[in-house]
Amino acid sequence: MRSFKYIAPLAVLLLAGCQQGGGPKYYWGDYQTSLYDYYANPTAEPNYEKALGDVTLADAKGKKTPPGLFAEYGYIALSHGDTDKAIQLFQREKQAWPESSAFMEKAIDNARNSKKPVASGATPAVPAAASPVTPVS
Protein backbone atom coordinates (compact mmCIF):
# COMPACT_ATOMS: atom_id res chain seq x y z
CA MET A 1 0.00 0.00 0.00
CA ARG A 2 2.88 2.26 0.81
CA SER A 3 4.41 1.94 -2.69
CA PHE A 4 1.03 2.72 -4.29
CA LYS A 5 1.25 6.19 -2.74
CA TYR A 6 4.32 6.89 -4.86
CA ILE A 7 3.50 4.91 -8.00
CA ALA A 8 0.09 6.46 -8.69
CA PRO A 9 1.32 10.11 -8.82
CA LEU A 10 4.37 9.04 -10.82
CA ALA A 11 2.15 7.24 -13.36
CA VAL A 12 -0.08 10.30 -13.69
CA LEU A 13 2.94 12.52 -14.33
CA LEU A 14 4.34 10.14 -16.95
CA LEU A 15 1.04 9.85 -18.77
CA ALA A 16 0.51 13.61 -18.68
CA GLY A 17 3.84 13.99 -20.49
CA CYS A 18 2.46 11.96 -23.39
CA GLN A 19 -0.54 14.22 -23.89
CA GLN A 20 -0.71 15.93 -27.26
CA GLY A 21 -0.63 19.71 -27.55
CA GLY A 22 -3.71 21.68 -28.48
CA GLY A 23 -3.90 21.38 -32.25
CA PRO A 24 -1.51 21.67 -35.18
CA LYS A 25 1.89 23.26 -34.76
CA TYR A 26 1.49 25.52 -37.81
CA TYR A 27 -1.41 27.25 -39.48
CA TRP A 28 -1.89 25.84 -42.99
CA GLY A 29 -5.28 27.30 -43.91
CA ASP A 30 -6.35 26.19 -47.40
CA TYR A 31 -2.76 25.89 -48.63
CA GLN A 32 -2.68 22.16 -49.33
CA THR A 33 -5.88 22.11 -51.36
CA SER A 34 -5.00 25.22 -53.33
CA LEU A 35 -1.48 23.93 -54.09
CA TYR A 36 -2.91 20.64 -55.36
CA ASP A 37 -5.45 22.52 -57.50
CA TYR A 38 -2.71 24.79 -58.85
CA TYR A 39 -0.51 21.83 -59.82
CA ALA A 40 -3.47 20.11 -61.48
CA ASN A 41 -4.61 23.30 -63.24
CA PRO A 42 -2.23 26.29 -63.44
CA THR A 43 -5.16 28.64 -64.08
CA ALA A 44 -6.00 28.18 -60.37
CA GLU A 45 -2.98 30.33 -59.47
CA PRO A 46 -5.08 33.19 -58.02
CA ASN A 47 -6.60 30.81 -55.44
CA TYR A 48 -3.14 29.49 -54.63
CA GLU A 49 -1.81 33.02 -54.14
CA LYS A 50 -4.77 33.89 -51.92
CA ALA A 51 -4.16 30.79 -49.77
CA LEU A 52 -0.46 31.72 -49.44
CA GLY A 53 -1.46 35.26 -48.44
CA ASP A 54 -3.89 33.95 -45.83
CA VAL A 55 -1.31 31.59 -44.34
CA THR A 56 1.37 34.28 -44.20
CA LEU A 57 -1.03 36.45 -42.18
CA ALA A 58 -1.30 33.70 -39.56
CA ASP A 59 1.20 35.37 -37.23
CA ALA A 60 -1.16 38.34 -36.92
CA LYS A 61 -3.80 35.85 -35.72
CA GLY A 62 -1.42 34.44 -33.10
CA LYS A 63 -0.69 31.32 -35.18
CA LYS A 64 2.66 30.18 -36.52
CA THR A 65 3.39 30.28 -40.25
CA PRO A 66 5.00 27.07 -41.55
CA PRO A 67 8.65 27.20 -42.60
CA GLY A 68 9.22 28.17 -46.21
CA LEU A 69 5.85 29.72 -46.96
CA PHE A 70 7.00 33.34 -46.72
CA ALA A 71 9.73 32.44 -49.22
CA GLU A 72 7.32 30.56 -51.47
CA TYR A 73 4.97 33.54 -51.53
CA GLY A 74 7.98 35.79 -52.19
CA TYR A 75 8.94 33.76 -55.25
CA ILE A 76 5.38 34.00 -56.55
CA ALA A 77 5.49 37.79 -56.07
CA LEU A 78 8.88 37.95 -57.80
CA SER A 79 7.59 35.91 -60.74
CA HIS A 80 4.88 38.56 -61.17
CA GLY A 81 7.46 41.35 -61.08
CA ASP A 82 6.62 42.63 -57.58
CA THR A 83 10.20 42.89 -56.33
CA ASP A 84 9.43 45.00 -53.25
CA LYS A 85 6.82 42.55 -51.97
CA ALA A 86 9.15 39.62 -52.69
CA ILE A 87 11.98 41.21 -50.70
CA GLN A 88 9.64 41.90 -47.77
CA LEU A 89 8.50 38.28 -47.78
CA PHE A 90 12.07 36.98 -48.00
CA GLN A 91 12.98 39.16 -45.01
CA ARG A 92 9.98 37.83 -43.06
CA GLU A 93 11.11 34.27 -43.83
CA LYS A 94 14.60 35.11 -42.63
CA GLN A 95 13.23 36.66 -39.43
CA ALA A 96 10.79 33.82 -38.70
CA TRP A 97 13.28 31.06 -39.54
CA PRO A 98 16.88 32.22 -38.86
CA GLU A 99 18.31 28.97 -40.23
CA SER A 100 17.21 30.14 -43.69
CA SER A 101 19.29 33.36 -43.48
CA ALA A 102 21.95 32.42 -46.04
CA PHE A 103 19.38 31.25 -48.57
CA MET A 104 17.14 34.27 -48.01
CA GLU A 105 20.07 36.68 -48.36
CA LYS A 106 20.80 35.15 -51.76
CA ALA A 107 17.12 35.41 -52.71
CA ILE A 108 17.05 39.06 -51.63
CA ASP A 109 20.22 39.81 -53.63
CA ASN A 110 18.75 38.09 -56.69
CA ALA A 111 15.49 40.02 -56.32
CA ARG A 112 17.36 43.32 -56.04
CA ASN A 113 19.34 42.43 -59.15
CA SER A 114 16.07 41.55 -60.94
CA LYS A 115 16.94 37.91 -61.44
CA LYS A 116 13.51 36.35 -61.77
CA PRO A 117 13.11 32.64 -61.09
CA VAL A 118 12.19 30.48 -64.05
CA ALA A 119 8.43 29.94 -64.11
CA SER A 120 7.39 26.39 -63.32
CA GLY A 121 7.05 24.28 -66.42
CA ALA A 122 9.01 26.77 -68.51
CA THR A 123 12.52 26.31 -69.78
CA PRO A 124 14.95 29.20 -70.04
CA ALA A 125 15.60 30.45 -73.55
CA VAL A 126 18.98 29.43 -74.94
CA PRO A 127 20.36 31.54 -77.79
CA ALA A 128 20.92 29.52 -80.96
CA ALA A 129 24.67 30.24 -80.89
CA ALA A 130 24.96 28.86 -77.36
CA SER A 131 22.90 25.77 -78.09
CA PRO A 132 24.89 22.56 -77.48
CA VAL A 133 22.96 20.79 -80.25
CA THR A 134 24.25 21.22 -83.80
CA PRO A 135 21.74 20.98 -86.62
CA VAL A 136 21.96 17.92 -88.83
CA SER A 137 22.26 18.68 -92.55
Total of helices = 6
**Percent range for helical residues?**
40-55%
Structural class category: mainly alpha
Radius of gyration: 24 Å
Global morphology:
elongated
Label the CATH architecture of one domain.
Alpha Horseshoe
Mean pLDDT: 81
Reported for the largest beta sheet, the result is: none
- Strand portion: under 5%
**Low-pLDDT sequence parts:** 122-131
Q: In the CATH hierarchy, what is the class of one domain? A: Mainly Alpha
Gap between N and C termini, in Å? 97 Å
The total beta strand count reads: 0
What's the order of the H and E elements? HHHHHH
CATH overall fold name of one domain? Serine Threonine Protein Phosphatase 5, Tetratricopeptide repeat
Plain-language structure description:
The chain is mainly alpha-helical and 137 residues long. It has a domain at 31-112: Serine Threonine Protein Phosphatase 5, Tetratricopeptide repeat (Alpha Horseshoe). It has 6 helices and no strands. It has helices spanning 2-17, 31-40, 45-56, 69-79, 83-96, 101-112. α2 runs antiparallel to α3 (45-56), α4 (69-79) runs antiparallel to α5 and α5 (83-96) packs antiparallel against α6. The longest helix has 16 residues, at 2-17. It is elongated.
